[in-house]
Structures are given as structure tokens and as C-alpha cells.
Amino acid sequence: MSTLSPEVTFEDVIAEPPSVRSFDKVWLWSHALFEVSRLWCYRLISLLLAVPVSLVAGILFAVFSCLHIWLITPFIQLFLINMHWVQTVWGSVLDIAIAPFFKSMGKCCSSINVRLARD
User: Fold this and answer.
1) In angstroms, how far is the first alpha carbon of the chain from the final one?
2) I need a surface site. Which of 6, 46, 89, 91 has the fewest CB within 10 A?
3) What is the DSSP string of 8-50?
4) What parts of the sequence cross the membrane (predicted)?
């Protein structure tokens, strides 16, 4: 059985009908060639692609980490420090205009009961 995948075997890929079979040596050599070529193609493709893809992923991770640490986080901190008055005004607006509305809606809806019944 091949290790290509659990559902696909060598016989599924290179199949002969049961009524007509080639020589046993041909079947044996074709099976061996299939397994070896599959293994070496995988190794060659992974050799050619794994190193460059991991290198690019590592570079991208390093760039994004550097940007986050040295640009984004200080910018956010600077913004929050300089915009403290906006936080104060926004908190006052919420306390004066919006909080009473939601408190009254909460009191109106507090007597609603939901019962789930199974039939």
C-alpha cells in the first residue's frame, strides 16, 4: 500500500484491469518507480520551495514585529496621551446622554421572563 494518502493507492493511480495484467516484473518495477519518483519529487519541491518560503515568512514577521514595536505602539501611546481630553469629554457625553437611556431601557425590560419548554 502506498503512503500517498489513505484513500489513494498505487493501484488506483496506475491501474490495470484484473482480466489483463502485464508481466509481474513490469508491475513491480512500475510500482517501485512510482514510489521513488513520488518521494524524490516531494523532496526536490520541498527543497526548492521550503527554504525561500520560510525565509520570506521570517523576513515578513521581522518587519511586522519591528513596525509594531517601534512605530505603531509608540504612535498609539502618543495619541492616547495627547487625546486625554477627548476621553474625558466622551466619558461625560456617555454619562449625560446615553447612560440614562440604556438604564431606563434596562428597567423597562427587566420584568421580561423567557421560558423554554420542550415539546
Assistant:
1) 52
2) 6
3) --HHHHS---TTS---HHHHHHHHHHHHHHHHHHHHHHHHHHH
4) 47-72, 84-102
What are the pLDDT digits (tens) for 48-60?
A: 999 899 999 999 9
Cell numbers that stand for 72 in this block? 505603531
* Residues listed for the chain: 119
Q: 21 and 28 in contact (C-beta within 8 Å)?
A: no
Per residue in 79-95, is it b (16+ CB within 10 Å) or e — as a string?
eeeeeeeeeeeeeeeee
pLDDT digits (tens, 9 = 90+) for 87-119: 899 899 999 999 999 999 999 999 888 888 887
Residues 6 or more apart whose CB falls under 8 angstroms from that of 81 comprise none
pTM: 0.43
Burial class of residue 53 (count of CB atoms within 10 Å of its CB; 0-12, 13-18, 19+): exposed
